[in-house]
């Protein structure tokens, strides 16, 4: 700032020359117009209206002017500052409007977009299959029976005509349950078949008896593509007057037709089970090769080991000894019984090639089956 001086001529003060003031004003207005963001405008504001801006410095010079010159100089600077502030406010409004419009676009919420749902699970296909089988039998007038998985050895073997020395007793690789004192002779086993439910049903109810039971059974098998130590059987028993093998055949054929369809053939093979006589094993035509792999080494089938058939399970006419053990008069009543592997049915129904997929609990296996109820 210049020193007070009575003879001071404002025209001599460089900063207060009108052309200098106009230049400072125009520079400020141009700088505001050139600002493309609110940040840039803020910097231009500091540069052109702040304490060290040309107009502020010029304003300070007014104080040193002689009184008669102050008014004119004040008016000059005041008009310039007014124009600068107006330009600043105008640009500020413009840039704020631009920002608001941009934010509206950038932060817009699309309410039609799907939100992050918790993934929906699926029921295990063996569970839905078990229910489907039960429904099929309930429609035929059967009742649903069940029994414990830790079963009395007597019900699992002896009552089914598998005495302690019966060779077939060792055919089934059994998990024996130790007694509380650690001795292996607890009289309990993990049931190796659902057949003890037959005995339980007959002990509970006199004929006519039509019962079906789906449940887990246990064998000391290693887990591989076609074996699992825990698997499911569907067990059925019908005891009434005049029941024949023909009734059994018709029942199994109806079940397979309902579950898998009529396209695949069934095969009946004579077999042996201590608790049925006569006994048979039921095979279903291989769903992969339909028998084309048999005797055809060029096109082997892994699913059926090129045999053309997949075993579904065993069945037969109930052995009169079993009826007697269950308190049923074999002179008056006869019956049939069957036990089918649920996993095998699922393999045929849904072309599942590896049994391990069914027990490993991977949701990627169950999800494609969806929420079938
Ligand atoms: Zn095959």
In brief:
This protein is α+β, with helices and mostly antiparallel strands. Helices cover 39% and strands 18% of the residues. The chain folds into two domains: 14-106, no CATH class; 125-369, BirA Bifunctional Protein, domain 2, CATH 3.30.930.
What does this protein structure show overall?
The chain is α+β, with helices and mostly antiparallel strands and 373 residues long. It has 2 domains: 14-106, no CATH class; 125-369, Bira Bifunctional Protein, Domain 2 (BirA Bifunctional Protein, domain 2). The protein has 12 helices and 10 strands. The chain has helices at residues 18-34, 38-49, 54-62, 67-106, 125-139, 153-156, 196-204, 245-259, 320-325, 342-350, 356-359, 363-366, and strands spanning 143-144, 150-152, 176-177, 188-190, 209-218, 230-240, 266-273, 276-285, 309-318, 334-341. Strands 1-5-6-10-9-8-7 form a 7-stranded mixed sheet, sandwiched between helices. Strand 7 and strand 8 (276-285) form a beta hairpin. The protein starts with 17 loop residues before the first helix and ends in a 7-residue tail after the last helix.
Supply the key terms.
three-stranded antiparallel β-sheet, 373 residues, 12 helices, seven-stranded mixed β-sheet, binds zinc ion, alpha+beta, BirA Bifunctional Protein, domain 2, single chain
């Amino acid at each position: 700032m210049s020193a007070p001086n009575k003879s001071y001529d404002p025209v001599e003060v460089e900063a207060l020359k009108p052309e200098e003031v106009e230049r400072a004003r125009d520079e400020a207005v141009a700088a505001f117009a050139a600002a493309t963001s609110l940040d840039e405008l803020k910097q231009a504001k500091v540069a052109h209206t702040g304490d060290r801006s040309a107009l502020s410095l010029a304003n300070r010079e007014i104080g040193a002017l002689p009184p008669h010159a102050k008014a004119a100089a004040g008016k000059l600077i005041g008009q310039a500052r007014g124009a600068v502030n107006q330009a600043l406010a105008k640009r500020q409004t413009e840039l704020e409007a631009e920002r608001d419009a941009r934010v509206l676009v950038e932060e817009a919420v699309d309410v039609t977009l799907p939100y992050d749902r918790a993934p929906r699970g699926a029921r295990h296909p063996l569970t839905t299959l078990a229910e489907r089988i039960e429904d099929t039998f309930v429609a035929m007038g059967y009742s649903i029976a069940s029994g414990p998985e830790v079963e009395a050895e007597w019900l699992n073997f002896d009552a089914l005509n598998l005495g302690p020395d019966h060779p077939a007793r060792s055919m089934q690789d059994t998990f024996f349950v130790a007694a509380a004192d650690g001795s292996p002779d607890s009289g309990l086993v993990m049931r190796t078949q659902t057949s003890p439910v037959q005995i339980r049903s007959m002990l509970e109810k006199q004929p006519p008896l039509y019962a079906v039971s789906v449940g887990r059974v246990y064998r000391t098998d290693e887990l591989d593509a076609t074996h699992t130590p825990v698997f499911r059987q569907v067990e059925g028993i019908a005891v009434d007057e005049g029941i024949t093998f023909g009734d059994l055949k018709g029942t199994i054929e109806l079940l397979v037709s309902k579950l898998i369809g009529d396209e695949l053939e069934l095969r009946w093979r004579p077999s042996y089970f201590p608790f049925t006589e006569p006994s048979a094993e039921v095979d279903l035509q291989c769903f992969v090769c339909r028998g084309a792999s048999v005797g055809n080494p060029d096109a082997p089938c892994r699913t059926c080991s090129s045999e053309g058939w997949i075993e579904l399970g065993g069945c037969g006419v109930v052995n009169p000894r079993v009826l007697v053990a269950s308190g049923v008069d074999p002179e008056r009543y006869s019956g049939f019984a069957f036990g089918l592997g649920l996993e095998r049915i699922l393999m045929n129904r849904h072309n599942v090639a590896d049994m391990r997929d069914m027990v490993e609990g991977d949701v990627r296996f169950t999800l494609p089956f969806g929420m079938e109820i």
